[in-house]
Design brief:
The protein has helices spanning about 5-20, 35-40, 45-55, 60-65, 80-90, 100-110; strands spanning about 70-75, 95-100, 115-125, 130-140, 145-155, 160-170. The chain is α+β, with helices and mostly antiparallel strands. It comes from Terriglobus roseus (strain DSM 18391 / NRRL B-41598 / KBS 63).
């Protein structure tokens, strides 16, 4: 796919994650406990497991990194991107609230190669809760499609670290 055909797909992803979450797709299968335990041993390992799951099209592994209930996924379009989207779709929302299931489904079903890159990572933790803030560039088939900043809220339960919420700014490239 070329950049022009991917840009609308990414806008659709950014604006309609809620539609995926409400689809009739089956929930992700259970990932073996030992895999989850290894993926959630510490915050950097959790982040690497997230990346590996996205790159590897493993929606089940990705889903296992989140709290099963209550995890929130918030996408906020940057001002320029929002104005661009509003021209095509006047009722477009600037803030979209969804959950991880939509992205896990997309990761599992896409034929495109996704590669989220994270830089300037800042982790704050007391060993029980953590906040992770970083800049990201989201590559699809090796080409930048989106960039912004992202925040993860993490909790450490009896079975390791889990993502409780992801909030990110979204600045997709124009088509």
């Amino acid at each position: 796919m070329n950049r022009l055909s991917l840009a609308p797909m990414f806008f659709a992803l950014a604006l309609s994650c809620g539609a995926f979450a409400q689809s009739s797709a089956a929930p992700p299968a259970v990932v073996p406990h030992d895999t989850v335990a290894q993926d959630t041993v510490d915050v950097p390992t959790l982040m690497q497991a997230y990346h590996d799951a996205v790159v590897g099209h493993d929606g089940n592994r990705l889903a296992a990194l989140f709290l099963p209930e209550g995890s929130t996924w918030i996408n906020v379009l940057g001002d320029t991107a929002y104005e661009r989207v509003k021209k095509a779709k006047p009722d477009a929302a600037k803030i979209r609230i969804s959950n991880y299931k939509a992205f896990a489904t997309l990761v599992s079903t896409t034929k495109d190669n996704f590669n989220p890159t994270h830089t300037n990572v800042h982790i704050l933790t007391d060993g029980i809760v953590a906040s992770v803030y970083f800049d990201f560039v989201f590559l699809i088939n090796g080409k930048e499609q989106n960039r912004g900043s992202e925040m993860w809220q993490l909790v450490k339960g009896a079975n390791g670290w889990r993502i409780a919420a992801i909030t990110y700014s979204s600045n997709p490239l124009p088509a």
